[in-house]
Structure formats: C-alpha cells, structure tokens
Amino acid sequence: MGVLKKFEQRLEGLVNGTFAKVFKSEVQPVEIAGALQRECDNNATIWNRDRTVVPNDFIVELSAPDFERLSPYSGQLGDELAGMVRDYAKQQRYTFMGPIKVNLEKADDLDTGLYRVRSRTLASSASQQGAAPSAPAGRPGQGGSGYPPAAPAGAPPMPSAPPPGGRPGGYGYPQPAPQRPSAAPASGGRTRYWIEINGNRHQISRPTLVMGRSTDADVRIDDPGVSRRHCEIRTGTPSTIQDLGSTNGIVVDGQHTTRATLRDGSRIVVGSTTIIYRQAEG
User: Fold this and answer.
1) pLDDT per position as a tens digit, 213-235
2) Residue 122 CB-half CA count within 13 A
3) At CB < 8 A and 24+ separation, what contacts does 211-214 make?
C-alpha cells in the first residue's frame, strides 16, 4: 500500500469522523500530502553516495475561509502530515537535518480551495531567515506540527552546513533535482534509455513505454493512485512523456502537466510513486 493511501486511511479514523466532515467538500488533505512529497523530491540534495537530505520544515498557506475552518484541527492533522513525510522519506531513503514540522498559515491572496507550499531544510540547532514561496497554488489543505525522528537510527551525524557548492536550506532556495550517479551499459554509439523506480532499473528497449497499474502495461506500478494505463514515455530527440487520461495526472520536475519533455534525471510522479528518467550516449 502506498504512503498516501495509508495517510488517507489513518486520517479517516481520527476524532470519530470529525475530519471526514471537515474535508467533505473541496478540501482534500491527501493532495497536500502529495504536495509535501513533491516538495521533498524537488528539493532533495545529495550529500554523498548514501545520503540525500530533504526539507524538514514546511508551511502550507491557505485562503482565509479554509484557514478559519481547519485551524482547530491543526495539531492532529499536522502530526499525520509530518508522519506521512517521515514514511515517504524512509521509502525513498531520504534523511533530515532536524525534526519535521508542518504548519499552516493564512494567505489573503488565495481563493477558497487553493493552497501554497513552502519548505526549507532546517537544522535542529539553527535558526533560519524568513520564507518565500516555492510552490504554485493548488487545492486546499492544512498543516500543524509533528516531530518524528530527525534521521534513521544508527545514521552518522549530519553536518551543520551544506556541502561545498551547495546552497543553504531555507524558504526561497529551490534545489535542482539530484543527479544520481548511475550509468547504463551502452555500445555501438547509440543512446540508451531507462527508468528507475524505488531503486529498480527498467530498460526502455522500444520507442514507447506504457506505465500503469494494469498487468498489460510495459512497466506495472502497484500504486492505488496510478491508473491502469497512466502515462507513456516516447524516446527520441527529445524524449517526451504523455498522460493517457489518468485519474490523478502526472507531475514532471515539480509541474503538473499532461505532456512534457524529458531530460536525463527528470523526476516523474504518478500517484505516490517517483520515477527517475535516464538516458546516456553509447
């Protein structure tokens, strides 16, 4: 079961159905949870071969009506959102520099049903400057405050400053998608294409590759948020990805889209699954 589905099920059982009433209409917390996942993916920074650091301090901005309605539940929902971030980081082998915090704020420039996510990497003993938006407005939701473990048990201590050439964590410091060191075997001087899902490599040996939950898909993704035939990659100059009319759509390098050009290292999010697109010259 995917991280987002587990989050949604836990949320449904809270406070004897209170959240089910609060979120009955336009507000969908699972969308905020997905946005937090994307915020981690889009701002991940590789420190070394075995450690990738992601933001741990999040602000979800809401319209005034949504803020007023959701703020009484900020503590419990914040705990659930922080726990979801922790579970997703464990799945992706991400680490944090400090405790995970998810807070909500009111934004007068947002209409009802819209939200905006900001994030930063904040060490437990450091204080950072103020915030600037790092994600476009989307649908509504909220945050609170949660403090799951800062890093996996037994992990060596994290440095207190970014590595050489890195930029300090903080709102308004978007990080480029991390480039994982890997190379596909190539021969004959031609371009080779492949994708990586949860550490598993899938070669693209034909001009098109269909991904989805169906057993008929070229690459099957066991994720309840993925449609049977979700999207298709077409290799070429350049390679592209096309949504195939899926229910939840696709996110490519942090942008919701129906079609996008792919580059080596592009991050594709379908449901709660992150896919890395790769290509290398022979």
Assistant:
1) 988 889 999 888 899 999 999 99
2) 21
3) 211/270, 211/275, 212/244, 212/246
How is residue 129 written in tokens?
């400057």
Q: Cα 168 to chain center, whole Å? A: 20
- At 74, the amino acid letter reads S
Summary count for the chain: helices (H), strands (E): 5, 17
Say how far apart CA 68 and CA 264 lie, in whole Å: 43
Helix (H) / strand (E) containing 146: none
Q: d(Cα 63, Cα 68) in Å, to the nearest integer?
A: 9
- Look up the pTM and report it: 0.46
Q: How would you write 11-37 as a 3-class SS string?
A: HHCHHHHHHHHHCCCCCCHHHHHHHHH
Structure tokens at 82: 């922080």
